[in-house]
Prior knowledge:
Layout: H1 26-33, H2 36-60, H3 65-91, H4 103-113, H5 120-145, H6 149-177, H7 179-199
Helix pairs in contact: 2-3, 3-6, 4-5, 4-7, 5-6, 5-7, 6-7
One fe (ii) ion binds next to helix 2 and helix 3.
Amino acid sequence: MASPPCSNGTTDDTLLGLPLVEPTPHAWVEAVLANVPRVLGDHAHCELKAASTALSLMGRYADDLELVLDLCALAREEMRHFERVHQVLVSRGLRLPPVGPDDYVKELRRRAQRGLVGQVSLDALLICGFVEARSCERFRLLARSLRDEPLRAFYEELALAEARHHELFFSHASRRAGADAARARTAEIAAIEGDIVRSRKPSPRIH
Length: 207
Ligand SMILES: [Fe+2]
Ligand SMILES: [Fe+2]
């Protein structure tokens, strides 16, 4: 049975298992449903950025074999996701749009890393984990809101992948920094991320 709606119209179980403290406002779902082509184009770029972030982290954590191997597999998987979203665009007579600004991720990085010295290395992994977690929540919302059955099933499947990816980043952060340090920093970043989501104007983009 579905959870009762929160005050903003989303439901509790879209956040299930995720470190997020702020549910996406229902106005975001409305903005997305009003412009599905735009969100598909934005989503394709999100997959490309996820792949390129994984590749750049491989260089940054080059001495951590376990992490490098996982990032290698992640970059491949994100590229497969990009190909699939691109196929969806093409099958609908759409093209990959020019890349848009990345305000959510930039703001998250800027605010989470402000004033930090020793935690920057931990933050890079946790911030990636939060981006995956927010994508997971929003794909769950898309899976339950879209009327288009193939697209709904597509987002249901991708929400599972994003849940897996957020766990990957948090488990490596925890392994490298210790469970207590990672948990404490996760709670701090969750508050910042929630504040950013609350303050952003809903638009037909993934973040
Ligand atoms: Fe992906
Ligand atoms: Fe992902």
